[in-house]
Design goal:
Layout: E1 11-15, H1 20-28, E2 31-39, E3 42-47, E4 58-63, E5 66-71, H2 88-91, E6 95-104, E7 107-112, E8 120-126, H3 128-142, H4 149-155, E9 158-163, H5 174-177, E10 189-196, E11 199-206, H6 209-216, E12 221-222, H7 225-239, H8 251-257, H9 263-268, H10 276-280, E13 287-293, E14 299-306, E15 316-317, E16 320-321, H11 326-345, H12 355-358, H13 366-379
Parallel strand pairs: 2-8, 8-9, 9-10
Antiparallel strand pairs: 1-11, 1-12, 2-3, 4-5, 6-7, 6-14, 10-11, 13-14, 15-16
Helix pairs in contact: 8-11
Length: about 400
């Protein structure tokens, strides 16, 4: 019997005990599967050999400055939130050689790095906030006249298997940023994990033709209306239990009006300028360039490395650093993330993943900092009179 052709957004069921088939199909198609696994006391993204490498039965508990792994009461494969890694590290590597040069007689030859050696990558377990982060980095690196060739070569070879969130983390606020918890675009396949009444299965839909081709090779059956409704209710429940919230109404203008607000001094007394927030952020893209050469001057290389606006060297020019204080650097980061980014790229630079809150050693919370500025501004608005001369 011929299997019916799957079209975009058709929803089918993939049983959990058949999940390995997804690995087999992707590997057969030449993809290196990258996804969540347990390492160093956290759930990180790395190359996976099989479904046995997934963090089955594990979850994470997150709050400001706190991340702890815990055992679940079930064997969910994606029963966690997001860890310290983001997919940025595979598309925009932390360290990248741009070119190398070799002296040849009285001149030199430059050899640019070629993208042909980059493998095809399948990202497994991409959350809605992370899909939005990838879309933001696409704007940064691919739009305009000067597309980044390294990013483009990696992005073009990427297959994305997204996962709708079945739980909200203690520092998540994707609902406020309108970036989740349901994936809506930018994926090849989207999964919703269901554990109910002893059953364990995935409701799967294809978002692209390539995703439909992969799905057609997997063992599956059509999803019933009840199964579709169950998957939908899981995402709705997640949206109702966000760990944080951020009022984004007029956020850009709010920060522009309060550039000299005393709250920046308060947060500076706590901020260590360690750059953790920018390293774990899935959208931050600041980098620096370093040139190295051998002692004889025969060979030279240029390397690009991640950098952060929290370092004094980042804004250093002749005469010193433009932003020499923690106050100036935190203000730069938060104002860029929630305000000037909108002017530059037409969208906020924050997707509400909460990583910057979780991995800040002193638990500085971007949602709380924005709330404090907003509330102090409201408190200073004069009250209206009552019409009899009293106020």
């Amino acid at each position: 019997m011929t299997e019916p052709i799957l079209s975009r957004h058709d929803q089918v069921i993939l049983e959990c005990d058949q999940f390995q088939a997804l690995f087999d199909v992707l590997t057969h198609r030449g993809y290196k599967v990258l996804g969540p696994t347990l390492r160093d006391g956290a759930i990180v993204y790395d190359e996976l050999a099989s479904s046995a490498d997934l963090p089955a039965g594990w979850t994470d508990r997150q709050d400001g400055g706190t991340y702890r792994l815990e055992r679940r009461e079930d064997q969910a494969l994606f029963g966690y939130n997001v860890g310290p890694h983001s997919w940025k590290r595979f598309l925009h590597p932390p360290v990248l050689r741009l070119w190398q040069a070799q002296r040849a007689g009285g001149t030199f030859q430059i050899k640019e790095e070629e993208g042909g050696e980059i493998p095809r990558m399948a990202f497994l377990g991409v959350r809605a906030c992370e899909l939005n982060a990838i879309a933001i980095q696409d704007k940064v690196f691919l739009s305009g006249n000067w597309a980044d060739p390294s990013y483009r070569s990696r992005r073009e070879k990427t297959f994305i298997v997204a996962v709708n969130c079945g739980q909200a983390g203690g520092t998540c606020f994707c609902v406020s940023m309108k970036t989740g918890p349901k994936v809506t675009s930018g994926f090849d396949l989207a999964l919703t994990e269901v554990l109910e009444g002893g059953a364990h299965y995935f409701v799967v839909e294809a978002g692209t033709e390539a995703g439909g081709d992969v799905l057609a090779e997997l063992p599956h059956r059509q999803a019933s209306e009840d199964e579709k409704a169950t998957a939908g209710s899981i995402v709705e429940r997640t949206a109702e239990h966000m760990g944080r919230s951020l009022d984004t109404d007029g956020i850009k203008e709010l920060l522009y009006r309060n550039y000299e607000h005393p709250r920046w001094d308060q947060v500076a007394t706590r901020c260590l300028t360690c750059a953790n927030c920018t390293m774990v952020c899935p959208t931050c893209f600041c980098n620096t360039v370093e040139d190295v050469t051998d002692l004889q001057g025969e060979h030279a290389e240029r390397w690009r490395k991640w950098d952060s606006c929290f370092t004094t060297d980042f804004s250093y020019i002749h005469g010193g650093s433009i932003r020499s204080t923690a106050r100036a650097r935190y203000r730069q980061w938060m104002t860029h993330k929630l305000a000037t980014w909108i002017d530059q790229f037409g969208t906020s630079g924050c997707v509400g993943c909460g990583r910057c809150i979780t991995w800040c050693p002193v638990a500085i919370d971007i949602t709380e900092e924005a709330r404090a500025i907003r509330e102090s501004e409201v408190a200073t608005i004069p009250k209206r009179g009552n019409g009899n001369g009293n106020s």
